[in-house]
Input
Amino acid sequence: MTTAHHSAPPSHGTIDAAEVARFDRMAKTWWDATGPMRTLHKFNPVRIAYVRDQLGLHFGLGAGPSMLDGLSVLDVGCGGGLLCEPLARLGARVTGIDPATTNIAVASLHAEQSGLEIAYQPRTVEDLAAAGEQFDVVLAMEVVEHVADVDLFIASCCQVVKPGGLLFLATLNRTMKAFALAIVGAEYVLGWLPRGTHQWDKFVTPDELDQALADSGFEAFDDSGVVYNPLRDAWSLSRDMSVNYMLVAKRV
Output
């Protein structure tokens, strides 16, 4: 049985009300692999594999269906739970937070139907930081480009990482190539994403993320680009970080 609370979250400095409202409207399509979230469904296996492999190396974990057993994981901006559920299946104790209450309702229902115990809450990462809550692993994947204050958001994410824990970030680089592919191509030409999903001026460069991390005493020790291969209709890791990229950081 999942744990969920559906009261409206308080307003905080990183919350972009327009972004929250847009994702609230789209919430019921999260688990439709052929709907508006289909690109994220195809992208998800690469994200899961990257997180799993980095956690295995960092914590000295063996492979297996319960390899994350005992680890506490926070997914910030969890949406419908596309990351939470695979990590819970690997044994992690997962908490998913999102300011869009409909996302929390959808995620909670899907997890319950899947027989997974995941703590979903309509809270912000700043709430958790203020409460002194901490986790072994914190994920903020495809969230940074939707917040109102990147520096505050990164600082709050760093604050909720336990000593010795890891912070994973994934976002879009602010380059003309990203504008051409992630906005013009994905939203207007191919229709992979609803128009208006992304705003180019809110994309974040790796250097900007590195500086925000450094300000909180964190350092990225691994990063990777993620690229789409149209011939295979699949995403994969790449040295090219000019559009999509992921990184993992730890306290220095």
The CA atoms of residues 183 and 198 lie 7 Å apart. Residues 38-59 form the longest helix (22 residues).
